[in-house]
Amino acid sequence: MRITGTGHASMRIDTAAGSILCDPWVNPAYFASWFPFPDNSQLDWETLGDVDYLYVSHLHRDHFDAAHLKRYVSKKATVLLPEYPTSQLEDELRDLGFTRFFKTVSDEVHELDGGLKVMIQALISPTDGPIGDSSLWVEHDGVRVLNQNDARPTDLMRFTELGHVHAHMLQFSGAIWYPMVYELPQSAKTAFGKQKRERQFDRTWRYIDDLKASWVFPIAGPPCFLDDELWQFNDIFGDEGNIFPDQSEFVKEYAKVGGTNGVVLLPGSVSALTADSCETTHPVADLDEFFANKEEHLKAYQERQRVVIEAEKASWSHPEIDVLAGMKARIEPLLDESVRLAQGVGGPVRFDLTSPEGDVIESILVDFPGKEVRIAADEKVRYRFRTERRLIEHLLFIDEGDWVNSLFLSCRFSAARIGQYNEFVYAFFKCLSEERLQYAEGWYESQRPDAEDITVGGFSFQRRCPHLKADLTRFGIVEGNQLTCQLHGWKWNLETGRCLTSVGHEIRSERAAEPAPQPAA
C-alpha cells in the first residue's frame, strides 16, 4: 500500500485493487481565513485526482473543497459515501458532477473490486461536523489503515475488532475558534489555550493507545492563517496557549509520552506501507529544517495568496441586503419550530454588526424565548457576537444554512458570554435549514440517561457521558467530587450532578454506598 500526503487531512491511498483520494483541500476556507499548511497548491492534482474512489469525510470546508473537487477529481471516481441522516453531502457532490456513489452502512465492512475492503464509521450527532463526521478504514492484502481524520468516536473498538491496524491517521491540532475570539484578558486566553492544547494532545494519546497501530500519522491540521488580521493565530510566536501546534510539535510531544512511531506527511511525501515496515520519502531534504523555517515559508505563502485574500474580501459586501429582514426571514421560522434547541439556548443572543473599521453599525437580537429577531434594545444577553456586517450580508446572499461552518470557524468575530459555554447556541446556528433543525431537535429529544452505572472514586454515576455518550470507564477521571470526561474535557460535580462546562447535560450520580463490614473471623 502506498500513501501519498496531499495536505491537511488529505491523502491518496494506492493499492493493487484501486486508489482512494481522501478529503482534498487546497482553496482557502471560511472567509479566506484557513489555508492548508504546508502549501499544497503546486502538487500535480491532475494526476492525483485521477482515482478510482473518492472519500469526503464530512462537509467542513477544509475537507470538502467544492471548487477543487469540481476541477481536479475524476467524475468517473466512485464516491464512498458515509451513512448520514441527511442527504446534503451526496447532494452537493452530485451538483459538482459526481454520479457514482457507493452508499456504505456505518460500521459494516464492504468488499470492493479486487479484494479492496473499506468500512466507514459515521458519527451523526448534531455536534459532529455539520451534522456528521466519519472515519475510513481500508484493508488490502493484509495491510490495514485507519484514516480517523478529525472524527472523535467514543472508542475505536470496532476498528480493533477487524485486526491489527498498520497506519493510524488522526487529528492532533486545534480546529476551533476557542479561546482566541473571546473577549478576555490575554492572560486568561493564554491559560485557557494552554488547557485546550494539552487536552488535544491527551485525547490524541488516548486514541493512539486504544488502537496500538504500527505507525501513527498526525494529520488534519493545523491550518495556517495568511490574512494580516489573523496572522497572530499561527504557532510561530512561542505562545504556550496557541491551539494550532504543527506536526513537528506533535513529534516532540509524542516523544515525551514514549512515542517513537510517528510519521510526518508533507504534501508530496510518500509512505510505502507493508505489514512489517513503513518507508517514507519527503519532497524536502530535512524535515527539521523545514519546520524550523516555518515563519519564512508562511511569509512567502502569504505573498502568493495575498491577491486571493483581497479578491475574497471584495466579494463579501452586499449593501443591497437588508440584514435585519434577511435574518428574520431565515431564523424566525426555525425559532417557531425549535423546542429543545430554543430551550437549551434559554435567552437572547445579540449580534453587533460593524463596519470594516470596527464601528458598530447595528445590533440585532435573536430572541429565543420570544421566537423573534429584532433590533436590540438594552436587554441583558448571555451570548454576544461581534462581526463585520458584510460577513452576515454574504451569508444571507449565498443562503448559507450553517453559520458555524462559515462565520464561526473563520475566527473573524469576537464573542462574549456570561456563565458557562452553551453548546445549543452553536448547534442552532449550525442548523439554519428545516431539515437540519428537525434532525437536531429529534436527536436531542432522543437522548436519555442510560441505565448502566459505574462506581469510581467513591461515586456511582451513569457509564455514558451526558454530552456525547463517551464510555466513562475509559474517558472518565474523578478527582475529589469532580468528574472530567477526557474525550472533550467536559466536567461535572458528582455531588449535585451539575455540569460545570455547559448549560444542561446533568449527570445521574450519587455517593457510592459504603461496603458492608465483614464479620470478624
Automatic annotation (TrEMBL):
Task: List each copy of the Rieske domain by range.
Answer: 461-521
Keyword annotations for this protein, in alphabetical order, are: 2Fe-2S, Iron, Iron-sulfur, Metal-binding
Tell me which SUPFAM superfamilies the record gives: ISP domain, Metallo-hydrolase/oxidoreductase
Q: Which InterPro entries match?
A: RibonucZ/Hydroxyglut_hydro, Rieske_2Fe-2S, Rieske_2Fe-2S_sf, SCP2_Rv3818
Protein's UniProt keywords contain Iron: yes
What does the entry list under GO cellular component? cytoplasm
One of the record's GO molecular function terms: metal ion binding
Coiled-coil annotated spans: none
Q: PROSITE patterns this protein is in?
A: RIESKE
Q: What's the protein called, per UniProt?
A: Putative Rieske 2Fe-2S iron-sulfur protein
